[in-house]
Amino acid sequence: MHPRPKIMLMAAALGAVGLAAGACGGGAVNDTSGAAAGGSGLTRNCPDNGTTGLTDTTIKLGLSQPLSGPYVSVGGQLYGMQAYFGYINSQGGIKGPDGKRRKVELVYKDDAYTATKAKANVDQLINRDKVFALLGQFGTAGNLAARPVIAQQCVPSLFATTGAPELANPKYPWAIAGSISYMVEGRILGKYVRDTTPNATVAVLEQDDDLGKAYRQGFDQAIAGSGVKVVKTETFEASDPDVKNQITTLAATKADLYFNISSGLTGLQALNHVHESGWKPQVIQVSQLPTPLLNKLQPGAGDKLILGTTGQDFTNPEVVRNSAEYQLYLQWLRRTPGADKIDPISASLGWTQGRLFDWTVQHAKSMDRAGVMESARNLDYTGPTFTLPGIKIRTTPGDPHLLEGLRFHRFDRGKGHLVPFGEVIDIDGQVKYEAVTG
Amino acid sequence: MALFLQRVIDGIGNGMLYGAVALALVLIYRATGMVNFAQGEMAMFCTFVTWKLADHQFGIGLPIVVGIAGGVAFGFLFGMALERVVIRPFESADHLRQMIVTLGLFLAINALAAWIFTADTQRLASPFPSGALHLGGVSLSYQELGVVGVLLVMALLLRELFGRTRLGLAMRGASMNPESSRLLGVDVSRMLMVGWGLSAAIGALAGALVAPAVFVSPGMMQTLLLYGFAAAVLGGFDSAPGALVGGVVVGVTQALVSGYVSAIGTQLQLATAFALILAVLLVRPQGLFGRVPVERV
Amino acid sequence: MNKTTNRILWAVLLGALVLAPFFVGTVEISAFQKVIYLSVAVMSLNVLTGFNGQASIGHSAFMGIAAYFTALAVQSHGWSYWAALPASVLVAALVGAAAGVPALRIRGMNLALVTLGLAMVFPQLPVRFTEETGGTQGMILDESLGAPAFLAVSDVAWRYWVLLTLAVLAFWLVRNTRASRLGRSIIAIRDQPIAAHTAGVNVAATKISVFAVSAGMAGLAGWMFTVTNQFVSPSDFTVLVSINLLLGMAVGGSGTLLGPVIGAAFLHYVPDAVTATGIDPVLTPVLYGLVLILVVYFLPGGAAGGLAQLAKRFSTARKPSPPAGEPARPVSQLTSSTPNP
């Protein structure tokens, strides 16, 4: 065991030589970019002039999202985005405020829905691949984990795929969410309940995380002071194989309404069990359960279900026929390699994100990161869209919420799609940033 | 009272799902002496085959019973093929190496299913009618009743297989004492292959039975796996009826604990299963029904 | 390969690692940091499984406990990272010792089951205590482990050197322990439990200490995790992480110091390499699974064992090679076949 100390000494000596040599080196030792703190103003403390990732003819974008692992099925947005950029590049590229057209080059990385990996990916996209901006960054935890990196380097993270209210935090002006905030949706659902059934009793199944808490907080705010009363709340974990036990507890309350704050598979299980239990409440469903999934319910289980959505329902062939934008999308999606394996409806999100980015760049005052970010925070989008007519797609510097409106739908199992009713409820401009307190 | 009864019934219903997974684990343990960590994933893969045969939208649209039969048949061949190609070289290896190999299968089969079929959640029709029987404030779904019936029959058949038939005895011999079995003219390797085939077939059946409740997806068996292990450990890891009883004990415990012990609530349900495994292994390693100590070094 | 060349190789490797921050950028250095903590984690598993023959699918939990301990201590209680270092390692070691107690009665596959349970339950705990830990969203740390002002080096480089030094120390400790009396007892328990007992080895105490040391080392990896990422979340410590550590151990080979480093590099670089080749990343785990099975079959000593074998074959003149189909007996086996008592 004698050689080891010698090696350590040698290493230390080498290190000393390196330290001396390093004064003129260009490695990580001298890279002090990590020292800059995230500022509150857009360009304060930014390390460069914000044109990284741009040439006169190209613009480089980055995206980290699940491409493997248990949540891979949500990853379709990549293909939708590629479809849009395929389309716009064929038109010569995105037109910037400087009059130049730039083709989009999209760099994407797999994070398997792990936040730490997402953060490392964003770090690489920004510091190694030198992307101009991030688009459609996926998942709440991944977005929050990567936020310090984004803030430090002043890189716009646009229209992130999450509804976490935290994305509207004014302390981090470089990120903006693309989906409706869970809290805003909860508030509109609560408003609907309060207006239509002012004395209802409600039983709630709540996903035990920030998503569940955000929905609940918005809902509670909206029903506060009315006769609507939550009589029982049960929570569940993603690792629960089934939520039958919880539904039994809720069904025992015989409440008038059942508020189902659960998504995907668990949402389906819960609705099936409610149906089997013999309890026949009016079901208020959060929008995290898309129509293709609702079609997998047991016959009868979705009969008394209503939900609010921001987007048109493309499971309805008539809606597909009437949307020129959706036809264009499908046409370009078909030319996108690998897209044959994914569900076009969920992938359409990526197309929307591409559209929004295009618009944001076109309307920017200057062709740099600050200009584009400024533009994303002063957006009033009126171009082609998959969003329901009547819902504003708008941000202001004081209100970064892109979408703040819903239209209510019934689920028609026979036809296999949603049927809209009532008017759009849009609370644009009435929403301030608020942390989830749970 | 109705609520309490309903919780017990829920527990039995869930417990049967765990018991279904445990049955396949027990079978492979009895037939080969291995604990197979890929058991759940194999069952998932076969369930996707069933789905492909039976689904009207994405598959061939055969009647569900035919689909299940197809999935089970596929499972038998799949299990035998895996044994022949992957497991046989490790037949006489130590447990650690066998464990690593089955974990390798776990990773590979899971990802292959997502790639070959889909990563999206899919619905598998149930062979039983939908709806529920309502009796005095308590509801019993036909699906659950059907699952209980099928599994009871399965467990009894398996007990017969290992207790009475030549094949069963030969399989047990091959797994417990391969040297003597060889001397007695038993083709040990073939017995192990049949054991893998049978347990994969049972897994395919279990998958089809749990699918109407947990849906079909590459992750469908993963949340059930620990509960399945708990059920198997409780039943002694070598008794088929024990696996079902173990499943029911786990399910009912879980339902009552999450319903009435607020400190655990619904958040630490997995911990309940874990505590059961630990307690049984410490206090009574042979489980409730095991006749021989299962402890192997 | 004689001792002198071996030493020179190690010195060159270490020297290159020490000097790396002068030549490569921050992104690469952060990646090196990950390889370092993964190496320590793989080595920790190796101590328990490779040397002592006890299987664990629970090391993600030991790592997670220390990582969360550090995060909570630094973020919520104002500790420094340095104060959290010994404390988090100690906490992990204690939990490991506690897990070692049932391991006296529960062995083989059943122990694997128990550790599987541990790994599956752990990610639930931060969710259960969402108020304190941020739940599924994870927890961002505002403080970072910064370089002392007088050194005038970047924080990234400083963190890298801290991790490198600690990892070298940990590896050095493992190497020394293995050659010691304790180390020989540990290996004796794996290979000849009954003989070890009759020879006066206190099997129970040794087994519990091995569990504690192994978990403590996994805890060190957990501390490094938090230092590197300034972020923890339940999804970082799932049972898949444990399976990956087993993969890293099998790929690298368990008997050598180099094995865990090779294994860790494999774990870190292969997924990105797969994405880069244009293969559907969905298939990455298939590759993992196949590699795992093939390595256990053809190269029970892992890559490091294989290298040593190769070197030996070149240096010692023409010995008959082992018969085809029969895997070569490695310098140090990943697992030794344990005789039935």
Automatic annotation (TrEMBL), chain A:
| Entry similarity comment | Belongs to the leucine-binding protein family.
- Give the species: Actinomadura craniellae
Q: Which PANTHER family match?
A: BLR6548 PROTEIN
User: Where on the tree of life does the source sit, at the highest rank?
Assistant: Bacteria
Position of the signal peptide: 1-23
Q: What sequence ranges are listed for the domain Leucine-binding protein?
A: 58-385
Going by the UniProt record, its keywords in alphabetical order are: Signal
For this entry, the protein name equals Leucine-binding protein domain-containing protein
UniProtKB/TrEMBL annotation, chain B:
UniProt feature coiled coil, ranges: none
Question: Domain of life here?
Answer: Bacteria
Q: Name one GO cellular component term.
A: plasma membrane
Per its UniProt record, what InterPro entries does this chain match?
Answer: ABC_transp_permease, BCAA_transport_permease
- Spell out the subcellular localization from the entry: Cell membrane
Q: How does it sit in the membrane?
A: Multi-pass membrane protein
Return one GO MF term.
transmembrane transporter activity
Gene Ontology BP, a term: amino acid transport
**Range of residues in the leader sequence:** none
Pfam families per the UniProt record, alphabetical: BPD_transp_2
Major localisation: membrane
- Give UniProt keywords alphabetically: Amino-acid transport, Cell membrane, Membrane, Transmembrane, Transmembrane helix, Transport
As for family, the record states: Belongs to the binding-protein-dependent transport system permease family. LivHM subfamily.
Question: What's the protein name?
Answer: Branched-chain amino acid ABC transporter permease
What's the source species for this entry? Actinomadura craniellae
Automatic annotation (TrEMBL), chain C:
Q: Where is the composition biased (Polar residues)?
A: 332-341
Entry keywords, A to Z = Cell membrane, Membrane, Transmembrane, Transmembrane helix
One of the Pfam families matching this protein, by short name: BPD_transp_2
Among the GO molecular function terms of this UniProt record, one is: branched-chain amino acid transmembrane transporter activity
Localization, per the record, is: Cell membrane
Annotated region described as Disordered, given as residue ranges: 317-341
Q: Quick one: a GO cellular component term?
A: plasma membrane
Coarse class of the protein's main subcellular location: membrane
TM segment ranges: 36-53, 60-78, 84-104, 111-129, 149-174, 245-267, 287-311
Q: How does it sit in the membrane?
A: Multi-pass membrane protein
Q: Per its UniProt record, what PANTHER family does this chain match?
A: HIGH-AFFINITY BRANCHED-CHAIN AMINO ACID TRANSPORT SYSTEM PERMEASE (PTHR30482), HIGH-AFFINITY BRANCHED-CHAIN AMINO ACID TRANSPORT SYSTEM PERMEASE PROTEIN LIVM (PTHR30482:SF20)
Q: What is this protein called?
A: Branched-chain amino acid ABC transporter permease
Q: Which organism is it from?
A: Actinomadura craniellae
